Predict the structure of MOSC domain-containing protein YiiM.
Amino acid sequence: MNAGVVAVSKSAVHGFSKEPQPSIRLIAGLGVEGDAHLGETVKHRSRVAQDPTQPNLRQVHLVHQELLDELQAQGFAVSAGTIGENITTRGIDLLGLPTGARLRIGPEAVVEVTGLRNPCVQLERYQKGLMAATLDRDNEGNLVRKAGIMSIVLTGGVIAPGDPIRIELPPPPHVRLVRV
């Protein structure tokens, strides 16, 4: 299966879900134009409360459509943008990417993976049981966060559903993703 963009979403206000769009523009060093999380420093309210001068390692949130399919099969009412992602992908093991992997999206845009999204209580407020459904345990009993990955924008550009995604891995040794 070819890796690609299923949907793109944004929201100008801090909230849980983002509205699907025909396209979004990524801005280098900032994030998604017109999105509440755009900026060089943290914009997520919990992070701002801790230290508003922290660099924004959460400029663009990506979720794999395969997770949404899994959640729908469990009875959850989720679709592109519902759980707050900017880019919904298909055909990529997002959670298996290493820190520093680069995703070339469409003709121009490049994002660099910074870490995992930590599922938060907003998932539970949206629909009871959703937070637990985005968490799992691996064979060793370690917590697995399935709610997508975060990234920063290296090269801006317009992206839209149907755009291909090409993965560039950093040189080994690869560093496993942790929550950011």
About this structure: The chain has a mean pLDDT of 96. Residues 65-73 form the longest helix (9 residues). Residues 4-168 form a domain with the M1 Pyruvate Kinase; Domain 3 fold (CATH 2.40.33.20).
